[in-house]
């Protein structure tokens, strides 16, 4: 729907944790996650986690953070979620900034 390829389609059913090695092996160009997944450390700490830090998504700052219910609550707001994901994926050029709730925000320090 947004023109992206789900690297986990067919191999990872449902919502299950992945090891750092499994994430690193996928080498995703973008990562879509929820605000709750960021934890207390925020986006910079999330992107610095082993397994995520070495991916093109983290290196090029293409981590899209959506409101938890918008991302997980398939309902009347699914169109809004798709729009925000599409906007976050619209430019996968290097170092454009992190997409946070559909808006590009400042880069985090390395």
UniProtKB/TrEMBL annotation:
Signal sequence, renumbered to the chain: none
Domain (Fe/B12 periplasmic-binding): residue spans on this chain: 1-93
Alphabetized PROSITE patterns for the sequence: FE_B12_PBP
Record-linked InterPro entries: ABC_transptr_periplasmic_BD
Tree of life domain: Bacteria
Protein name: Fe/B12 periplasmic-binding domain-containing protein
């Amino acid at each position: 729907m947004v023109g992206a390829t789900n690297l986990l389609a067919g191999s990872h059913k449902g919502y299950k944790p992945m090891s750092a090695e499994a994430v690193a092996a996928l080498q995703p160009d973008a990562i879509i996650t929820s605000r709750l997944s960021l934890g207390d450390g925020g986006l910079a700490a999330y992107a610095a986690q082993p397994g995520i830090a070495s991916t093109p998504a983290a290196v090029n700052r293409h981590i899209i953070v959506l409101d938890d219910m918008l991302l997980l609550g398939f309902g009347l707001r699914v169109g809004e979620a798709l729009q925000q994901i599409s906007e976050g994926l619209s430019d996968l050029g290097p170092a454009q900034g992190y997409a946070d709730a559909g808006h590009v925000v400042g880069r985090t320090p390395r």
